[in-house]
Design goal:
alpha/beta; Rossmann fold; seven-stranded parallel β-sheet; five-stranded parallel β-sheet; 14 helices; 12 strands; D-mandelate dehydrogenase
Length: about 400
């Protein structure tokens, strides 16, 4: 699959305007290119979908950016959008059981901030869906909130929108990597404090703890779309050496261009690099973290750690312990296991500049949300049109 630039799919097809509210005019957004459905590969699902108007359950806010694509989407499908009060879990379940929206064929969630009022998509919700549902396309890269295995077993393709967020997350990850080498939280807080003693202390003493990035080893835990984007920036922008660990075998076309070194285990990776970046997806149904005291014990003394993946993948108390002991020199964490609550111990380390803590912001750009919308609609139209989904994540479970 082609990697993104600012948006998930290559541009070419012009779009018409649409009467849908929420945007600022016509249908062509300059940062929202689309892909013709006819260019997608043929799918075995085609036999199940003769060309006809299908029903789509649209959960969440109205489409705001890609109005031209929405015009095409709504021309092909009958869009049903439940009211906000109908999306609360109890009411939503009751509506499904009553078949209030009939036998719909797809679920469409174009934004991450809304459309999740019903909570986790577990067996209770999934088993209440009509048997006609064949695709669930959502904004967001993560899918630990949905039982994608059960969806697949029910014959429902789940599509995420990680491709649309890859560039934004990679850019943010670079800022976090720089922070771990240059103690940016300390530099910022000292300058912002208004205290001349703090300013002078940071000016004089941050130097001895700061380093250039060039020549250091960066380890990618996960070399998917986001990992590859981060690796390219580190290799070609900062002259860093690329190491990686991934459960999937990476093609030589990817690794050779980066001169990337593969590691046979996570322990080997973190024990070899100067900074490790967690950019792997959460594993649906996983009950334990990926980075615990055991893995942290394998890090090189004074190494750095960055998390732009999922908060649930990291034991933050163990990270705080590693900072206390000096095992880790600094960390940068965009995601947290109990959001919006942040570890008190890590907040204390942020005051000294050893921890950069952000509010799950890595993928949060206008361009990302434009891509979420576009890609979600394109996935639904592809599957209901008998074509392959663009970004499916559960095909191995599909019956």
């Amino acid at each position: 699959m082609a990697e993104p630039t600012n948006t998930p799919v290559p541009a070419s097809t012009p779009r018409s305007s649409s009467p849908v509210g929420g945007g600022s005019g016509g249908g062509h957004h300059p940062n929202a290119p689309i892909i013709p459905i006819t260019s997608l590969p043929h799918s075995p699902l085609a036999a199940a979908f003769a060309p006809s108007r299908r029903r789509v359950l649209h959960i969440g806010d109205p489409v705001k950016y890609n109005l031209g694509t929405y015009a095409q989407f709504s021309a092909q499908c009958e869009i049903i959008r439940p009211e906000a009060h109908e999306r609360e879990r109890t009411a939503f379940l009751q509506a499904l059981r009553e078949k209030r929206w009939g036998d719909f064929h797809a679920i469409f969630r174009p934004f991450w901030g809304t459309g999740g009022e019903m909570g986790r998509w577990d067996a209770e919700l999934i088993n209440a869906l009509p048997s006609t549902v064949k695709v669930f396309a959502s904004a967001g890269a993560g899918f630990d909130w949905a039982d994608t295995k059960l969806l697949g077993e029910r014959g429902i393709v789940y599509c995420n929108s990680g491709l649309a967020a890859a560039e934004a997350v990679a850019d943010f990850a670079i800022a976090m990597i720089i922070s771990t080498f240059r103690l940016l939280p300390w530099c910022i807080s000292a300058a912002s404090s208004g205290d001349t003693v703090e300013f002078q202390d940071c000016h004089e003493n941050a130097t001895i703890k700061s380093h250039n990035l060039r020549g250091h080893k960066v380890g990618l835990i996960g070399l998917g779309r986001i990992g590859q984007q981060i690796a390219k920036r580190c290799r070609f922008g900062f002259g860093m050496d690329i190491w990686y660990y991934d459960v999937a075998e990476m093609p030589k076309s990817v690794t050779e261009s980066l001169e990337a070194k593969t590691c046979a285990s996570l322990e080997e990776l973190v024990g070899s690099v100067d900074v490790a970046i967690l950019c792997a997806p959460a594993i649906p149904g996983a009950t334990s973290a990926l980075i615990t005291a055991r893995e942290l014990g394998c890090f090189r003394d004074g190494a750095r750690f960055v998390n732009v993946a999922r908060g649930s993948l990291v034991d933050e108390e163990a990270v705080a312990n590693a900072l206390d002991s000096g095992k880790l020199s600094s960390v940068a964490l965009d995601v947290h296991p109990r959001e919006p609550s942040i570890s008190d111990r890590l907040r204390e380390h942020a005051k000294t500049g050893r921890a950069m803590l952000t509010c799950h912001n890595a993928g949060g750009t206008v361009e990302t949300h434009i891509g979420f919308e576009e890609l979600s609609m394109r996935n639904v139209m592809a599957v209901l049109g008998g074509q392959m989904a663009i970004t499916p994540v559960n095909m191995q479970y599909l019956r």
